TrEMBL record:
An individual GO BP term: cell-matrix adhesion
Highest taxon of source: Eukaryota
SMART domains per record: NIDO
Organism: Magallana gigas (Pacific oyster)
A Pfam family the protein falls into: NIDO
PROSITE patterns: NIDO
Official protein name in the record: Sushi, nidogen and EGF-like domain-containing protein 1
Amino acid sequence: MWIILIVALSDTAIVGPALGLTLKDLYPFGDQAGDEALSKNDDGSSPPIPISTLFPFFNHQHSKLFVSTNGVISFLQGVSTFTPDPFPIANDARMIAAFWADIDTRNGGTVWYRETTDAVLLDRATKEVTNNYPNFFRFKASWVFIATWDRVAFYGCSDEGCSKTNTFQAVLITNGQHSFTIYNYEDIQWTTGKASGGESATGLGGTPAQVFIYSSNNLFITRGPWATSLLSNDNHDKSSLMKSYTKYLNNVVKYILYKKIFKIFLKIFLCLTLSSFCNWMISQSYYS
């Protein structure tokens, strides 16, 4: 069983379409794509969503999932917590957090989701995996789940703050044996809701959003925001690479947040899900 995370961060208003993600680069979403939408809410979640294919997540197979307003897909229950918890979160928590923060769609935006076996999208997902991971050249996607947080605002925003919105997407892909998650970030303008210590006019400061994949002792986390680290019960020589990369990212956090001209791909592979240790490798990064 494998789980692979691909993260893409960018802002196309400055980078331009040749370098950054645009809405057309995201997987199709919205009414026209046949999505379901969460009702406008604060700290809400979908009911259990039955899925037609078992999704392997570390050493578990899941037949349902939950999409939460606050930027999380979970497998055991919906997530209403608005300030990201310290780790470990809870015993046997299983979460995929594209952008865990205090989102309030009553102030703007929509959360969309659907599963699909559309041949065109399966082909796209297959190519994204095989193009990024040549060792998976035989991989053929059989199922995709797409969750999109479209122009979502933060809790407690002022009139000025509510004009700052985030658009991002989590795409779950499997062939029934191997699992992949792709995070797409089209535009990130805020990191923190007011109840988490953020400024009402900017959505910055306080306890910012987190990006991670979490299941019990297996964790890949992007902190503070966009500083990367690996937490594991098992020390490994790759940890020095991760710590070094974390330091590098910390040096450019303000550049990422305020200039918004940063694009990075994190490619992580070889997740040994039965051993409580994942060997994570960052294989590419781009910035300008």
